[in-house]
Amino acid sequence: MERRVLIVDDEPDMAALIDAALRAVGIDTLVATSADEGLALVAAEELDTVLTDLQMPGMSGLELCERIVASRPDIPVIVVTAHGTLEAAIGAIRAGAYDFVQKPIKIETLQLTVERALRHHGLADEVKRLREAVLPATFEGIVGQSAPMRQLFDLVTRVAPTEASVLITGESGTGKELIARAVHQRSRRHAGAFVAVNCAAVPEPLLESELFGHARGAFTDAKSARTGLFLQASGGTLFLDEIGELPLSVQPKLLRALQERTVRPVGGDHEIPIDVRIVAATNRDLDADVDEQRFREDLYYRINVVRVEVPPLRARGSDILVLAQQAIARFARSAGKAVTGIADPAARLLLAYDWPGNVRELLNAVERAVALTRFTEIAADDLPEKVRDHKSSHVIVAGDDPDQLPTMDEVERRYVLRVMEAVHGNKALAARVLGFDRKTLYRKLERYGVLSDS
To answer: Which residue has the higher pLDDT, 411 or 158?
Structure first.
């Protein structure tokens, strides 16, 4: 991609020196011999950075910087200061300059400073593009424009109008309930109720009553009859979250309700017809649970007519910045702070981190950063320590220094996580690639903290 830098300097020799130094590293340049000429080029040309001398006849570099910042705040301005005076540097930064370079100019320092400014401009453009893309890239309120999310939205669009039972799988924090609501909203049942129950949150003795209801006097505290969730969801969708935690004692009763399309309240004498679509979700490997007889095979096939896998955040690429930018706007508004974006180093850390807690963890990190930052952009230091200090899961073994070589356990950890990233979190496929059985893979992921519910 072409990168264009405008050089503003009234000294032809100095302008030529800077021009040659930047062109040597593949940067396209324009040269102006006065601030007025430079300002005209800023208005007329597509530029990525401006490099201006401070002392020039007529309009000074400082005034030029102020006017560029006022009219084109997206273009970083680097000011060249004579003799390295601290006052001039402070004045430039106060005028809105991105950075400054001291005379006599060191070519390597100049090149590095301009490269940083170009990266800053490129990332700012990307964040702006992503921010503008948030609205058209939403699907029933779900943000996502990466390839895995587009595939997910396409699958939901195709299955939603049918009456097929849907099993939504994915790691904790990926937004499975949002996908369940999208299935409901795009179905013919969208005018009916969407009723959700967390199977892990209801105590086992109460779960049957919660699902099917109970008759008056069915047990000690049943002083009146109660309508269960199946009947409350009549004409709509019943969302069974964390269905992998459903007790074995309740599973055959749920299976019967799905097969017969009727429920019998606890303590009741009659079957009651039901008209409900089932959408279930789990972060467990139900195939392994079926193999180990922790989940009934017949119930598994009844709920798993169409399987919808929600990709982990680490597989969603630039969606991370879209979600972070959206969260910044929300948290900044509630905190009453003028935080508008993400600094280049912080954005790179967000993209490099593995996000074992997925979207939930990202929102937590952004809320923390907004609360702590003293600037209008989130900086790297505002992010949680584990994000700042994250080691890539990519397997890299280089160098001859024994102190720098990873242990075999670390190499295995990186490789396992790299495979999980490549298969978008599909544990069954990852186990086949790695040559592990599912139980072994689960134990390793648990040890690495990937199966955390945080």
So the answer is: 158
Is the pLDDT at 179 greater than 80? The verdict is: yes
Question: What are the φ/ψ torsions at residue 31 (nearest 5 degrees)?
Answer: -125, 130
CB atoms within 10 A of CB 398: 7
**What pLDDT, on a 0 to 100 scale, did the predictor assign at position 134?**
44
291 contacts 428 by C-beta, under 8 angstroms? no
pLDDT, residue 360, reads 94
Do 246 and 357 reside in the same domain of the chain? no
> Residue 19 is part of which domain span?
4-133
Contact 79/62 with Cβ under 8 angstroms? yes
Quick one: 303 and 327 in the same domain? no
Measured CA to CA, the distance from residue 234 to residue 49 in angstroms comes to 61
Is residue 71 exposed (0-12), middle (13-18) or buried (19+ Cβ within 10 Å)? exposed
- 350-364, 372-386, 435-449: which has the minimum mean pLDDT? 435-449
Give the residue among 124, 123, 144, 149 at the shortest CA–CA distance from 134: 144
Alpha carbons 276 and 298: distance in angstroms, whole number: 19
DSSP conformation letters of 321-336: HHHHHHHHHHHHHHHT
Same domain? For 110 and 251 the reply is: no
Q: Which of 365, 130, 126, 359 is nearest to 373 (CA)?
A: 365
> Could you tell me which residues are beta bridge partners of residue 62?
none
Give the per-residue pLDDT at 136.
41
Dump pLDDT digits (tens) for 265-291.
887 778 999 999 999 999 998 998 999
**Pick from 176, 312, 148: nearest CA to 244:** 176
Cα of first residue to Cα of last residue in the chain, in angstroms, is 40
Q: Please tell me whether the overall predicted TM-score, pTM, comes out greater than 0.85 for this model.
A: no
DSSP at 266: B
CA distance 354 to 191: 39
pLDDT of the residue at 454: 35
- For residue range 32-58, what is the model confidence (pLDDT) as tens digits? 999 999 999 998 888 999 999 988 999
The alpha carbon of 351 is separated from its chain's Cα centroid by a whole number of angstroms, namely 8
Same domain for 298 and 169? yes
Q: Are residues 22 and 60 in the same domain?
A: yes
The count of structural domains within the chain is 4
Instruction: Give just the sign of the alpha carbon dihedral 398, 403, 407, 411.
Output: negative
Q: What is the pLDDT of residues 137-150, one digit of tens each?
A: 578 989 888 889 99
Helix (H, G, I), strand (E, B) or coil at 65: helix
Q: Are strands 272-273 and 262-263 parallel, antiparallel or unpaired?
A: antiparallel
Does 244 lie in the same domain as 214?
yes
